[in-house]
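Hey all, quick one. A colleague (J.T.) asked me to put the FE2/S2 (inorganic) cluster job into the tracker so the inputs and the structure tokens live in one place instead of scattered across chat threads. No bug as far as I know, just bookkeeping. Sequence used:
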Amino acid sequence: MKVTIDGIEIDVPKGTTILQAARMIGPDVAPPTMCYHSKLKTSGGYCRTCIVKVTQGSAANPTPMPKPVASCRTEVMEGMVVENTINADVLEARKGVVEFLLMNHPLDCPVCDQAGECDLQNLGYSHGAATTRYEFPRREFERIDIGKYVQLHMTRCIMCFRCVKVAEQLTDNRVHGVMHRGDAAEISTYIENVIENEMSGNVIDVCPVGALTDKTFRFKSRVWFTKPVDANCDCKKCAGKVRLWMKGDEVLRVTARKDQWGEAVDFICNECRFEKKKTSDWKIEGPSHIARTSVISQNHYEHLNELKLQVMKQQKALGFMDINKRP
Amino acid sequence: MGRKLLIHNDHIPNIHTLAVYRANGGYASVEKALKTMQPDQVTDEVKKSGLRGRGGAGFPTGMKWSFLAKPEGVPRYLVCNADESEPGTFKDRYLMEKIPHALIEGMITSSFALGAKTSYIYIRGEYFYVARIVEAAIAEAYAAGWLGKNILGTDFSHDCYVQVGGGAYICGEETALLESLEGKRGNPRIKPPFPAVAGLWGCPTVVNNVETIAAVVPIVNMGGEEYAKIGVGKSTGTKLISASGHINKPGVYEIELGITVEDFIYSDEYCGGIRNGKKLKAIVAGGSSVPILPAALAITTAKGEPRLMTYESLSDGGFLTGTMLGSGGFIAMDEDTSIVKNLFTFSRFYHHESCGQCSPCREGTGWMEKILQKFLNGTANESDVDLLWDIQSKIEGKTICPLGEAAAWPVAAAIRHFKHEFIEIAQKKKFVDISHYDRLNKLVKA
Ligand SMILES: Cc1cc2nc3c(=O)[nH]c(=O)nc-3n(C[C@H](O)[C@H](O)[C@H](O)COP(=O)(O)O)c2cc1C
Ligand code: SF4
Ligand code: SF4
Ligand code: SF4
Ligand code: FES
């Protein structure tokens, strides 16, 4: 099927979504995403970051679609014409979505474990406004431990539902889901139940922000001080293809490998993730390739103290919480 | 007097019982359809009638039915949307409470047309006593053979069940309703697929409003063409209007589509004018989500024609000078009404009812309510009006389900037509009287 995105035509198989087609063309026209994950069924459609304008529905029915559509959940049609970066309305709408996502967010990146590998931080840099227009108190939650390895801090959650899909699709006996509704909705385990399942650690990798974090790694090091290397092992429970985050010879953290779009390539089991922290547990393949769009590789954090000062100034101006208050 | 087809018998004692309902011509449409018609012929009559969905969107019912996928060996379902939670709308409750068999008769006849062996009536949680009435009527219908196996000795069998919701507005959105009916969280689904292809338990499903289904009864009895003679243009038949606000006679009225708005507000047959001799300030014609209209535009369109109670006339002028018939929740406001305070009430509702799946609605509805709260507190600035406008524009059209629009439209329309009221408050020339909320809060705490 032929589809044109931002003036570039591409031939894709039936059933391809606009997002997948745009990614095939390349990162310049691919819309940003927060809730879609290629390895999770029925993911996407929630955050609305990836919305695009369909100016021609198909060759057979050329009328434009009346509303912007979520590119991650809309399949292409023969002769469809899509506008993303060249459409001012789309960019304006996306700015709105980013503002909504950041509105109730603490934005205390300097003390957040996710900083440096956070999709929201990246999105904020590329599409956000410099200041916020939201003047009211932000949502805050207590941290909760969901099991031995995973901590949940809802304050940072953007309700992308990816962790819920992991719980649904990779684990049995799901105890993890959404409670309440609207802006009171929260990800939770029923009455702080613990998640005890071999694959449960994957919720950390799919979480685009610092809401679900690895308790065995929390605050051991900023990610940009660790070196990612790809490694593997013979594992009976998963493919054993992982990424090690090393400091010298020490393995500080184990995660799934992520593709160019920040989405896990193979999900890994808890034993690989949390228990194998010695170099001798692994066959090292070599340094990982990290997407250039990531904050890690853009050196935004080279001078941490300088940045902390800047952020503090900005937060003070906006009336945010004190970033020196350790979480 | 206008013709009535749905609630013409509401004054008859015990019309809620099968015996009285039957004695007054009830279940004739089932007899006619099952004994003398093919299912497709029933659908054809509905098509000819021009009936449009009474739940809010006004989608042609016959067309919706003909979209229903009919794969071999897969069950099909009819689901009745009785979640009626839109502020200002209470007509379905009236119909179900007074004449429950009218709905059940419609369910049987419609299910026959659609080839549905099972149907569900999804009733909002707060209507539990209505659910009891409908359940009692269903039991009577089973006992008399109108439901169950081989109805009237034909090979059509049908089961009808009542499901009571948890009391969430969002469960009125058809796909959220289906999720809830399946026992899940009432989150709207991402479409496509539409229910006509993959609805309840993944099977082809038609979701229709209570009034839509009840209207099938007179359509089959009198024939689609006869029905279509009532009304104006593409607004055929009769419509139940829930009338509330500052009128002399609030209540549920059945009107022939096509009477003028002026007639509806001022005639003794309907609302009987504005109470206490006050002047009309504005109307909300179709439930809280449709744009508010100032009195002048409510009575006369921008073209200078009298405004009619029809889908077309009410939307004449688009959102700039028009509105929508919606669900027929008609709210009249007198000259003393604060549009800003009224908007706050609506916005608080949408904030409370957002399911939270998509970012613009989840975050934007709360933000708008908080800004409107500033107007009530007397702390708003003029720039807050522009901010409100910008927020609503960033919600509208960017969400999974139309609740986003339902939250955005009232804000846009209030600013479009009554911006001066917001500005006056921001400039501290006027204040909103919120003593009413204080009294309410005390009541809640007590
Ligand atoms: C937030 C929301 C709430 C709704 N609530 C109701 C409702 O309470 N009753 C209803 O009939 N339709 C409601 N609708 C419309 C339904 O989604 C659907 O369009 C309707 O049931 C179709 O029936 P109809 O074609 O007979 O009008 C609602 C829609 C939305 C978006
Ligand atoms: S999750 Fe953490 S790193 Fe990401 S934007 Fe929020 S505070 Fe910053
Ligand atoms: S906890 Fe993380 S993965 Fe789960 S919904 Fe929130 S942001 Fe998404
Ligand atoms: S628009 Fe609102 S109610 Fe509808 S799916 Fe999105 S968050 Fe839920
Ligand atoms: S990535 Fe498409 S809606 Fe979130």
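Adding what we noticed when we looked at it: Chain A has three domains: 2-96, 109-130+137-214, 223-298. The mean pLDDT of chain A is 87.
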